[in-house]
Amino acid sequence: METLFFLIVAAIAVICSLMVVTNKNPINSALSLIMTFFCLATLYVMLEAPFMAAIQVIVYAGAIMVLIVFVIMLLNIKSEAGRRTSHALFMGISVGLLLLVQTWYLLVKSSLSSVRGTVDSAMISKVGHTELIGKSLFTDFLLPFEITSILLLVAIVGAVVLSKKKL
Amino acid sequence: MVSLNFYLVLSAILFAIGTIGVLTRRNAIVIFMCVELMLNAVNLTFIAFSKYLGNLDGQIFVFFVMTVAAAEAAVGLALMIAYFKNRESIDVEDMNLMKW
Amino acid sequence: MDIFGDIPWYIYFAAMILKVLVAFVFVLLTVAYATYAERKLIGFMQVRIGPNRTGPIGLLQPIADGIKLFFKEEIIPAQASKFAFVLAPLVALVPAFISFAVIPFGDSIQIAGYKFPLQIAAYADKAGTVYDLNIGVLYILAMASLGVYGIVLAGWSSNSKYSLLGGLRASAQMISYELAAGLAIVCVFMVSQSLSLQAIVADQSGLFGWYIFRNPFLFVAGIIFFICSLAEINRTPFDLPEAETELVSGFCTEYSSMKYAMFFMAEYANMVTVCAVMTTLFLGGWHGPLPSVLNFIAKVYVLMFVCMWIRATYPRYRYDQLMKLGWKVFLPITLFLIMGNAIWMTLFK
Asked: Which domains does chain A have, with CATH numbers?
């Protein structure tokens, strides 16, 4: 039952991501990408990470993609005129497939062997996923978290400088 | 329960599709979207591993990846708008000068 | 199975379907009669009579409007991007309705020894512990941020200058006001220490338990949240995406028939949702003197009246004023409120 549901969601994700790559019209690509993000959010819920699913929808579908759609509309980009030459197309696709084969090989040859942590479904439903994430974020990962804020500051400054009238 | 390998295979497929998109498309915004797709494929691996190892560290990494993606979106799109103002195009084939 | 929490599965499903049906029909009826109420109220406020021809005191007006729009000719512009054009009204309508899945609209009720929480996405096990979506508030934020796609898509796919401008304005407006609304909700998290809406409502019993009366910072946060929500759902005075006087009809210029009706319904459904969220987060949810569901409905209706009152009172903002209000007024104030709230909470524990 669960596997069937996974397969349906995964199939939709793969089809939509293929549409991102193949659609001529950037807005349609963006819509397919939003659909892919939704499928991924569904998978996160199946992996007992509801907080990450909500953040996925809020940040990706709600903020980043709105921004992208906004820019596409602002620049009024119509369908792509030129295409890559068939050589470039061939090389790109073969590199992609090579990557797929590589990861596949890695998967087949390796086995999951690491120290198992203490977080399981019972703990997540008892304490709450958000609480666990928050605790981890503000104790073990406090320094990276603070550095992230600097990264965001730099991004804000960069975006403001870049969008000035005269560069 | 769905086996871990299912998630890993899905994420590998999505990553490969993202790579193909980056290498074969010419529209800078579509390339950008394909990069987001690749980041998301990696996020899926992180969360799947985090669940099967009983450890939340992977999800914290996803959190950071999302922050980076947001920062990247802000700066990247600002760059594209600045470029479009100068060249009236965001085709990557036209980006062949270091200055103008 | 584990997810049904030792309730027999048929009772579980029957209760779920019943809850969904009741909530959905209630919202639909409210949406239909909100249009009538708005026309009547604004009529009275502007010393007019408002609709009074269809049925007694015009009560059948929404039905007549519905039938009229249903039988109108469907027009899809030849240059429109068809798929997105048809998809857009649906995308606008759905998020408005599915936000209701996590809003608790009443206290739990006991039927035949089983306890049923009056919230769609929730269930109780035999011991009476209520489980609901652990991230309810984030779910609402996520759905609110999706509502913009309907408008943006409509604006883009119509292939008309007015529509495109409406769509552009909508996306910029949503992004700006989402931030302030989200930061205002952070103040609620700090007090409730939970993201589950059941827990948030349970924490607000008694008149002075309502979060809006807890401390001065939360009071201001509540008001800012309400204003930002109005801006997010494009209600007057922030209805720039469809400003009739400048953009013809904004994003829905090219729409006709049922598709136009769906945008109309989406607008009012969004209004109901926003009022319900405001009630749940700041105004004590279903707590109050009446039976629990009636309290909730009464509060939502009062807030909807306030929305209509605002519409009759204020003129539309100019675009630059709108952006200035969002980024230079509300955002700094909400940031300050979070600080103030934290200080207040440590001082008066």
From this structure: 1-80 (1.20.120.1200), 120-167 (no CATH)
Q: Answer whether C281's CB lies under 8 Å from C196's CB.
A: no
pLDDT confidence tier of residue A80, bands split at 50, 70 and 90: low
Within 10 A of A67 (CB to CB), how many other CB atoms are there?
A: 17
**pLDDT tens sequence across A113-128:** 667 777 777 777 777 7
Chains in touch with C (3+ beta-carbon pairs under 8 Å) read: A
- Enclosing domain of residue C153: 78-105+133-347
The alpha carbon torsion through C91, C96, C99, C103 (nearest 10 deg) reads -170
Average pLDDT over residues A156-165: 84
Whether C249 is in a domain gets the answer: yes
Helices (H) and strands (E) in chain B, counts: 3, 0
Task: State the total domains in chain C.
Answer: 1
Task: Give the best residue of A55, A68, A74, A148 to mutate against chain B (max B CB count within 10 A).
Answer: A68
Is residue C25 domain-resident?
Answer: no
For C221, C228, C263, the CA distances from C330, given in Å and listed in that order, are 10, 8, 28
Euclidean distance between CA atoms C37 and C44, whole angstroms:
10
Give the residue extent of every domain in chain B: 4-94
Q: Cα distance from A85 to chain C (closest Cα, Å)?
A: 28
User: B14 touching A, CB under 8 A?
Assistant: yes
Q: Which long-range contacts (CB under 8 A, 24 or more apart) does C234-238 make?
A: C234/C151, C234/C170, C234/C173, C234/C267, C235/C267, C235/C271, C235/C307, C235/C310, C235/C311, C236/C310, C236/C311, C236/C314, C236/C316, C237/C310, C237/C311, C237/C314, C237/C315, C237/C316, C237/C317, C238/C173, C238/C177, C238/C316, C238/C317, C238/C322
- Tell me the C-alpha distance between C301 and C307, whole Å: 10
How high is the pLDDT of residue C1? 42
pLDDT score for C3: 55
Q: Write the class of the CATH domain B4-94.
A: mainly alpha
pLDDT range class, residue A81, cuts 50, 70, 90: low
Low-confidence ranges of chain C (pLDDT < 50): 1
Tokens of C321: 């004023």
Q: Model confidence over A25-75: pLDDT tens digits? A: 888 888 889 989 989 999 998 888 888 888 888 888 888 888 888 888 888
Res C126: pLDDT: 67
Can you give the pLDDT at residue A14? 92
Contact criterion met (CB < 8 Å) for B20 and A93:
yes
Question: What does the buried/exposed string (b/e) look like for C159-169 if buried means 16 or more CB atoms within 10 Å of the residue's CB?
Answer: ebebbbbbbbb
Between C145, C146, C164, which is nearest A73 by CB?
C164
